[in-house]
Structures are given as C-alpha cells and as structure tokens.
C-alpha cells in the first residue's frame, strides 16, 4: 500500500515540478505557455480529451482560494489595515500567484489525470 501511495505523490510531485508524471524525465512545457502534446521522453499524452484543461482551472482556483483565505485571516489578525486595503492586497497577490504558478498547478492536474486514466501512453 505504501508503494502505491508513494507512486501517487510522485506523479503529483513530478507534475508540480513540470515533469512527466509517468517517467519524471520529460518536460511538460515546451515554452512558458506552450505544452508538449506528449512527453518527449516516454510518449505519455498530457491532455487526452478536449476539456482536460478544466481540471487545471479547478486546481488553480482551489489553491489560490486557500492562499487568499489564509492570508486574509492572518493579515486581518496582525494588522489594522482597512478592509478595502486588504481586498486590494489580496486581489493583487492572487493575480500574481496565478500568473506565476498556473503552469505548476496545471502540472499537478496532469499528474492527477495520469493517475485517473489508467497510466497508458495512448491518447
């Protein structure tokens, strides 16, 4: 059972690091914004169906929401900033976070897709 658990975390970790969830060698992205359709090392298809990108949006939304909620509670507890200033701060932080780390969250989703789709290299 622990071997399966480590395989799950390895696939998600590889995705976070923008590497193929199956082999860990191939890169998911060709450029900053362009994905490889398949792993250059092992041939795993990264997006197998038309709507596969929606899961990445859900992961990005979830992670960003948790970051903003935790940060907002901490900022409210530790400072005397007005609500308007806090909203502006967290809107900027959330936007910047998404811009900088969306690829990594998409990689996490690719790792999850790999785990859910039978681990085959076919599209």
Plain-language structure description:
The protein is elongated, with a radius of gyration of 17 Å. The two termini are 28 Å apart. The chain is built from 3 helices and no strands. The protein is mostly helical and 123 residues long. α1 crosses α3 and α2 packs antiparallel against α3. It has one domain.
Taking the alpha carbons of the first and last residues, their distance comes to 28 Å
| Main sheet specs | none
Share of β-strand residues: under 5%
The number of helical runs is: 3
Rough shape? elongated
- Residue share in helix: 55-70%
Number of strands: 0
Number of domains: 1
Order of helices and strands: HHH
Low-confidence stretches: none
Average pLDDT, rounded to a whole number, is 88
Global Rg: 17 Å
Provide a short characterization of the protein structure:
This protein has three helices and no strands. The longest helix is centred in the C-terminal third of the chain and has 34 residues, at 83-116.
